[in-house]
Each structure stands twice: as structure tokens, then as C-alpha cells.
Amino acid sequence: EPGITFVAAKFDGIFGMGWDTISVNKISQPMDQIFANSAICPNQLFAFWLSRDVNDIANGGEITLCDTDSNHYSGSIAWEPLVSEDYWRIKLGAVSISGTTYTNGPMDSIVDTGTSLLTGPSDIIKKIQHKIGGIPLINGEYEVVCSKIPSLPNITFTLGGQNFDLQGKDYILQLPNGNGGMTCLSGFMGMDIPAPAGPLWILGDVF
């Protein structure tokens, strides 16, 4: 890929794992090629683990091909069928806080490790930002008072019939501000994707 991206960035490339339907010239994607070889890949699945410790550079994350690594999760896996083979698109059952549901029925969502934040329809995200005491900044970002993180409510995502709770420390990004302190930003951002692709949520790295 041309441009400054791979000159300035601290990575060697991008390993795209989307479907052929959205690839350039419908070129067969890496996972299609790997899955086609049952000798090396008996299980057609893959898994990601991303560390939440920004200081642990040596163990930033892991991708497991053709299997899962039980060292990085507990309990049972919630399986959810794909809605369509464009992105890794599934149905998000609900988003709720303290018993109040903020979604009106199941909505399409994309599981995407290439998106840093957790995005959703702007009207719903604004309600969530208000609930967690978010202070509007620029470009749709919200700041949260760092000292309030321990008292922030859990935000519950329902997938595959199971509830997954994000605590304040999970959905608030704590970033050095250059003055010896920290700036705390909400990991939620509004994004209105028009039909037919949307509306939808993107379950990025925050999730």
C-alpha cells in the first residue's frame, strides 16, 4: 500500500480478514485460503486476545488461527451466526445500563479489531455519554473525569443470549496528557451509517 502509513506506523503491514465480497477485485482473502486447507486448519475459526495494559508492550495481543486459546478467556463462548458475509456482521441483542435498555430490538453489529473505539448510532451514543458523565470535546469525542472511573456504571452488551459487562476501566481510555497527568476519554463514539449498510454498531477494541 503506497503512502506514509507504513513509513510512520510501528507495524509492518495489515492482515485483512474480511470477506471476498468487499475485497479489491474480489481477491480471495487469507482466511479463505487457510480454511480451504483442512490438513493445516481442521477448525474453521480464529480468535483474538488484546491486552488492556498499554504498558505491557511485550504482550500486546495474540491471534490464534484454526483454534482458540483457553488461557485468555473463562466460561463458555457465545456463538452468534453471521448476518451476511461482508464484514464479520452479527446481531447485537441489546445494550443496557443498570436495567435500562438503550437499543430498540436487535441491531446489526460488526466485530472489528481494526476499529479502536466502540461506535453506534449517534442518538444512542449521546444517551450513553450523558449517563457516564461525558463532556463533549471535538470530532465526537467525550472526556470523563478520571477520578470517576471506579464509580461508573457497567454497560451490558447482549450477544448470543449472554450478557457481557464492560466496567468503567474497560470503556474509558486513560491517556498521558503530556503534563504528567492523564486525560480520560470515553471509548464510545457516534457513527451514523446509512442504509443499506446501516444502521449498525462496530464492536471495536474497547469491546
UniProtKB/TrEMBL annotation:
> Would you say which domain of life the source belongs to?
Eukaryota
Which Gene Ontology molecular function entries are recorded, alphabetically?
Answer: aspartic-type endopeptidase activity
Disulphide bonds annotated for this chain are 146-184
The family database entries (SUPFAM superfamilies) matched by this protein are listed as: Acid proteases
Q: Which GO terms describe its biological process?
A: proteolysis
Ranges for domain Peptidase A1 come to 1-207
Q: Which residues cross the membrane?
A: none
UniProt keywords (A-Z) are:
Aspartyl protease, Disulfide bond, Glycoprotein, Hydrolase, Protease
Record has Signal as a keyword:
no
GO cellular component terms given for this protein? lysosome
Family named by the database record: Belongs to the peptidase A1 family.
Protein name as it appears in the record: ASP-3
Give the organism, scientific name: Caenorhabditis sinica
Q: What is the lineage of its organism?
A: Eukaryota, Metazoa, Ecdysozoa, Nematoda, Chromadorea
